[in-house]
Amino acid sequence: MSHPVNEPILGYSPGSKERIEIQAELDRQMSEIIEIPCIINGKEVFTGNITTQVIPHNHDHIIARVHLAGQSEMENACKAAVNAQQNWIDIGLESRCEIFERCADLLAGEWRMKVNASTMLNQSKTVFQAEIDSACELIDFWRFNCHYARNFHDDFQPLVSPPGVKNSTEIRPLEGFVLSITPFNFTSIAANLPSAPAIVGCTSVWKPSRNSYLSNYILMQLMMEAGLPDGVINFLPGSGAEITEVALSNPDFAGLHFTGSTATFQGLWQEIGIALPNLRSYPRIVGETGGKDFVVAHPNCNERGLLVALLRGSFEFQGQKCSAASRAYVPQSVWSSISEELCAEINKIKMGDARDFTNFMTAVIDQRSFDKITGYIDRAKQDKSCDVIVGGNYDDSVGWFIEPTIIVTSNPKSETMIDEIFGPVLTVYVYEDNMFDEVLTLCDESSPYALTGSIFANDESDVQKAFNALRFTAGNFYINDKPTGAVVAQQPFGGARASGTNDKAGGPLNLLRWISPRSVKRTFEPPQDWDYQFMQPDN
């Protein structure tokens, strides 16, 4: 086969080998507290400025003590990344790919349960969500990114070389280091953001999310075990403001690889603009940010499919996905048919400890998220245009638990239809059956985001109408499916508008952002005369 295949997803069914292994690993990790240092130039750095990492569904349980980086550590990390780059370039693409393919093999094998268990505890994911994320997706990132990178040399060579000339393109990395700022919600994205530029020859400073230090540190250890040279990726837990202040003022800052909030990304872009006069080159800015992802249903649609898509798309991983279904436009006839059953199905959802495999949901990530999400719920309860028809309760006494919640609103521009909530809250606007065209316009114009969305319709003409009307409303568009679950090499992921730069992680376009090609012309017989034929006098 000319390309890799997606890593198979293990099922963790009762009595299976993987279920027994993950349960044992969960017990082991629950019994210890890991000391997490910074890693700079391949060396562990214990700063003494310590914060703790807790389990979201049991926030009295500490799983790690984390040594935070300060200004000096950040300066040293930037220096290490710059100093490591030449050797990293010199070993060549094939050697770099071999290292990251070794990473994929380790994660597919002996490290799988360790990484999955840390994601389940650190980010409160179910075993299936962790398997998809921290194992399969990251394995796919590493294998397919290597595949794409290997093709760049041939794909981008000049089409024409006249007689006596050889034209070529050198696939160079950016000159300098890439700052990778990563999110808590996907372990795979956290490791991909520094490693994707590394495959093509860049070096990175990696600032992990404050809510995923443990799982991210374990992946840093995995990459080092696979043979990643010192300084190629430097691991810096710490304050985002302190780290970015040092990085952006460094003349060798070459790029930003970011996943996180829209406001933070916009602020960083502004800071980069201010820093430009001090930088050696114009940095590449790549970001995937927020979303207010939609489901639009046509009166003629697969109602059961819509019901399942709303439930899974909204409430898996507590809605803490930038792609999660957060707003839905459902015709009156369909809503009358499915609403009672949808609420009944949601009331069956179990929520609790990630180690209990009968739970569909666990806890949101931290107190700040809990307060933000419950604030939206409380305000909806007081809003006369909104009706909380299921869920709406919450409890932070043991873990940060919020019930899966559906709000039905008569105001298509109420705050829960517009704002990114990033939690288990779906808002439904019920429209008159004959208003499908108007609803498509409403969906397009109501939100500043353009990440994911889906259409449910049986007739192809209705699908095409939505496809055209919502062309710029979603970077990932789903037809008769939930708007989540993009797979590497199948649906490269990213959005535009306020959702990011749409550089499509999981495909070749993202990797291309980290190269700076050099055009080379080799002339075999240089001209020996300086004058031209047109300069000859008339006869």
Task: Describe the protein.
The chain has 539 residues and is of the alpha/beta class. It has 16 helices and 23 strands. It has helices at residues 17-30, 71-90, 92-108, 112-122, 127-155, 187-199, 213-225, 240-248, 262-275, 303-315, 332-347, 367-382, 415-418, 436-445, 460-469, 508-512, and strands spanning 34-36, 38-40, 43-45, 50-55, 58-67, 165-170, 177-181, 203-207, 233-235, 253-259, 284-288, 293-297, 325-331, 386-390, 394-395, 401-402, 405-409, 425-431, 449-450, 452-456, 476-479, 496-497, 518-523. The strands form seven sheets. Strands 14-17-18-13-12-20-21 form a seven-stranded mixed sheet, sandwiched between helices. Helix 10 (303-315) crosses helix 11 (332-347). The longest helix is centred in the first third of the chain and has 29 residues, at 127-155. It is globular.
Short key terms for the protein model shown above:
539 residues, alpha/beta, Aldehyde Dehydrogenase, Chain A, domain 1, Aldehyde Dehydrogenase, Chain A, domain 2, 2 domains, seven-stranded mixed beta sheet, 16 helices, 23 strands
Short description:
This protein is of the alpha/beta class and 539 residues long. It contains 16 helices and 23 strands.
* Overall mean pLDDT: 97
Rg value = 25 Å
Q: Which bin fits the share of residues in helices?
A: 25-40%
CATH class of the largest domain: Alpha Beta
Count every helix, treating DSSP H or I runs of 4 or more residues as helices.
16
What's the CATH architecture name of the largest domain? 3-Layer(aba) Sandwich
Q: What structural class do you assign from the helix and strand content? A: alpha/beta
What separation lies between the terminal Cα atoms?
66 Å
Task: List low-confidence stretches.
Answer: none
Question: Largest sheet, if any?
Answer: 7 strands, mixed
CATH topology (level 3) name of the largest domain: Aldehyde Dehydrogenase, Chain A, domain 1
CATH superfamily of the largest domain: Aldehyde Dehydrogenase, Chain A, domain 1
Task: Report strand %.
Answer: 15-25%
Strands across the major sheet, in which order?
14-17-18-13-12-20-21
Outline: globular
